[in-house]
Design a protein that fits this description.
single chain; 349 residues; alpha+beta; six-stranded antiparallel β-sheet; two-stranded antiparallel sheet; 50% helix
Length: 349
Amino acid sequence: MDNSSEIAKILKDSMWSYNEIHNPKYRKITILGSDSELADLFVRVESVFSLLEKGDELFTPVLNRKGVGNRFSLTDTGEFFINTINFSLSIPCELMDKYKLNPAVCIFLGYIKKHKLGGLNLDLICYSEYACIRQKINHFAKVIKKIYAGVNFKNKLRNYFRGIKKVHDGLNEYINMIFRKYSQVKVLRMELGYRKSPEYPYGNENGVCYSEAKKHKLLFFDEKDKNSVFEGMICYIWKLEYAEQKGFSWHLVLFFHSKIVKKNCVLVEEIGKYWTEHVTKGLGMYMDCKDFHKGYKTYGIGLMRKGNKNDRDELRKAIDYVVKTNYFAKIKIPNDGRSIGRSKIKVLK
């Protein structure tokens, strides 16, 4: 049975839409600060488990003229399963080391590493090898299906998500607190990162380590009251992110008093200049998240009004966006430091 449409549906209904992961139009906005390969891997593993849980077979008999099946071929699910195994091995180890991966992904990768699976191309091997690999793949599927259904794994998953849910609920309550104090606010979202070194145009070779990035973030907020561009800012949310191609960056959601007359693009430009010139002394760069969200109808940027349901929903989606990278991988912070934070809410007249 051809169930390629079922695979597409599962991917579409997963936490990240199929378009967000695979369509080049959305590629750069999928996860601004984190590598999309990890998001892709998470979606693939999640989809594999969903298909196995449904009871999908990985191989199907190939019948001869007498109706006897003594050979096998991959089903759509089987091909997707093997592609996921091969894809997982294409992700750089350095990137994996920066993150604490979702338990489902950890188990999947752990089995592959232990049993040295990967580089599988069943079209290029002889029948005897095919039978051996088919046995290994079926055993792999049986093992992870049993593990994923077990109490121990469910407890690990519950513990992994507990902290994420707490942060998510806390940020949503934070939005409610803002609107208890203000009838409307102006919202900016931007990413503060670092330029590549001209000596190393490929990979993360800008020389900025976590401790230096943290110092820049502290300086950015400690010195903000000395800069008139922040006049009228009532509070903010920050999130630390990491990507192989650009290193560490800070995703910010900034809330301003609605009476601030400057346009968002002007505010972003002035804040970006403050980051690049004052804080990082020319090492930094910045991006306006509005430029990355033209593919979406809503993105929680601009004037947000307390009494407007659509505005509130946009802000909640923005919060979902900030938190959702943690669902597949949490960035490792020295000494169990935080990767997400928020400020106190000022009351301005």
